[in-house]
Amino acid sequence: MRWGKAGKPGLLFVHGGYAHAHWWDFIAPAFAADYCVAAIDLSGMGDSDYRTKYSADTFSEEVMSVCSHAGFAKRPIIVGHSFGGLVALKSGVLHGEKLSGVVLVDFPLRPPESQKESDSRRPLIKPKEIYPERSMALKRFRLIPSQPCENEFILQFIASHSLAKVDGGWSWKFDDQLFKGFKSPNISKHLSSVACPLAVIYGERSALFPPEIVDHMSRVLEKKTPVHILRGAHHHLFLEQPLVFIKTLQKLLVQWAHPKDKIRPSKIPQRGATL
């Protein structure tokens, strides 16, 4: 998926786990006037092919490959939501010198012990269901973690691009073996190796940002790292508050494009606080 003209500064959106590029269809066009914008289908998700094994390094290589072939000028910026934030951050670790920045959207930086616990709670691998009718599958579409979202038309649009015709009916496009044997990297350890600007946007009510995670991120992020909190928003903040998210990201990109207008250093805010 691509918007805008080739030759403009690059902006790549990376979706979350089990998701796909169409999650960004209501966001990406808002940046096309100033950027050449693209959204990726990571392998094993969306319309990309499956692999026998997946890793953060492999996903990072896919991201950089898209950046190389999307017609981006100069060093692009990568915006990753949730699991896509892990991929974006890993890209910053491995290829930061080729990037102008990485934006983590509701991706928590957990302590190693907390990350191990989170990985252990990952749902068991099980075969995807096959639904005899497409309408039945659409009714089963849910946001994970569960949250309110008044923009039902957006959810239905995303769900409609999440399904594929298979033998016996309809099923989800993602590889149900996606996280089999997947090992999460020690992100906190890698933070010091990110060789490009870093920023964070997260939802005030996100289930992934309990107080202990907010406290940890306050300690490990550099003071110059911009942190933006969307009041009242949950994990899928850009579906819930698309216009607010767009405005927040646009402001951040303008600040990065004009570094003389220094961003005031700040600690990550406590839940309920604003920037």
Number of beta-strand segments? 9
CATH architecture: 3-Layer(aba) Sandwich
Give the radius of gyration: 18 Å
Q: What average pLDDT do the residues reach? A: 90
As for the number of domains, it is: 1
Order of helices and strands: EEEHEHEHHHEEHEHEHH
Spatially, the strands of the biggest sheet line up as 1-3-2-4-5-8-9
Helix content: 25-40%
Largest sheet: 7 strands, mixed
What features would you describe in this structure?
This protein is α/β, with parallel strands linked by helices. It has a single domain (about 1-120, about 180-255), classed as Alpha/Beta hydrolase fold, catalytic domain (Rossmann fold), CATH 3.40.50. It has nine helices and nine strands. A seven-stranded mixed beta sheet has the order 1-3-2-4-5-8-9, with helices on both faces. α1 (about 55-70) crosses α2 (about 85-95). The longest helix is centred in the C-terminal third of the chain and has 16 residues, at about 240-255. It is globular, with a radius of gyration of 18 Å. The model is unreliable at about 265-275 (pLDDT under 50).
What's the helix and strand layout?
Blueprint: E1 2-3, E2 9-14, E3 36-40, H1 56-69, E4 73-81, H2 83-95, E5 101-105, H3 112-120, H4 134-140, H5 152-160, E6 163-166, E7 169-172, H6 187-190, E8 198-203, H7 211-220, E9 227-230, H8 237-240, H9 242-257
Parallel strand pairs: 2-3, 2-4, 4-5, 5-8, 8-9
Antiparallel strand pairs: 1-3, 6-7
